[in-house]
Amino acid sequence: MDELIYFDYAATTPVRPEAAAAMMDALGQFGNPSSRYGYGREAARRVKEGRETVARALGCSPGEVYFTSCGTEGDNWALRRGAELGRRKGKHIVTTAVEHAAVLETCRDLERRGYEVTYLKPDRAGRITAGQVTAALRPDTALVSMMLVNNETGVLLPVAEAVRAVKAADKAVLFHTDAVQGFLKVPFPVCSTGADLITVSGHKIGAPKGIGALYVKKGVRLAPLLTGGGQEEGIRSGTEATGQIAAFAAAVAAALDDPKRLEKAAAVKEYALARLKAALPKLEVISAGDVGHICAVTLPGYKSEVVVRVLGDRNICISSGSACHKGRPSHVFAAMGLPKPWLDGALRLSFSPESTRAQADVLVSALKEAANSLFTTLS
Q1: HSE of 183 in the Cβ direction (CA atoms, 13 Å)?
Q2: For the chain, what is the mean pLDDT?
Q3: By CB neighbour count within 10 A (0-12 exposed, 13-18 middle, 19+ buried), where does 157 fall?
Q4: If we measure between CA atoms, which residue out of 369, 379, 358, 360 comes closest to residue 307?
Q5: Which CATH number fits domain 17-256: 3.40.640.10, 3.40.50.300, 3.20.20.70, 3.30.43.10?
Q6: CATH of domain 5-14+259-373
Q7: Whole-model pTM above 0.85?
Q8: How far, CA to CA in Å, does 232 sit from each of 67, 112, 134?
Q9: Could you give the angle at the alpha carbon of 132 between the alpha carbons of 99 and 295, nearest 5°?
């Protein structure tokens, strides 16, 4: 089999050696963090240290960090309980049409439960302004949810500006941001945005799947999504996943120890885009991305799912959008108003500090061969 050429880091990342080692060490010490004997106290110490490490990366206090199983859980918790917290104010929610499915599907479920949701449309570049957010506010608006980095275009949304504008208009409105693609991928701690609720996930930064966190700003009295034994200060019950937490913290610490990580990914992305444009005259750039690890391109007239499969047969991994689409057309690209041939041929490329120019060269060569050998559609 050919060497794996992986340019789908926005979907998931390989587990870092430091994270795997930390997880195995924690699994060897199997005590329940709630138990009062030595084994339990040792597990509780690992959870405490993990929380402190994640809080340092977020830019908040450890008491504002609650571990979850994933980003989807964090988004559901923030939206469902955030909306519930603000129900006396009203049942109106503002979000964007380019959010991850974890936000959009939760909003649709809330609509079925009597809430009204305003979905803000992006421009052709995938951008949404703080002005759009404030213009959508109503007296009964209880919650705003706006992602930090779009997972398909790499566009950095103006969350900090929007938070300031929303709070200036109405301090009682809760603000949530899905920062799964922004955590440790932007040159500032995500809590500096000022959002009340922030979702992050471990498997996007080299931790295993099954661990994430929700930041809840001090003073926001969020109700539990899960009830039971009262873990996580009583608002997220369930025995703490000590091994995953240890791995999450180790991945965070490794990222913090590599201050050049963002520059490394961005350099390979820029190189890959330049080579692709030179090698494939029909290729169009949908978004070069504001962050270093994501961009989106299209081969108008081709079918992206076919291109992805052809490259996959050569052990080259790219995507046609979010992994959660499972082959369905991208709602993000559709919301941007792209013409159908562009939508049909849309491809997402995502990078890491470990990506290389040599791998990019292999990708460009394979994509050129695929474009030359495949028939175009009439769309």
Answers
A1: 29
A2: 95
A3: buried
A4: 369
A5: 3.40.640.10
A6: 3.90.1150.10
A7: yes
A8: 7, 30, 34
A9: 40
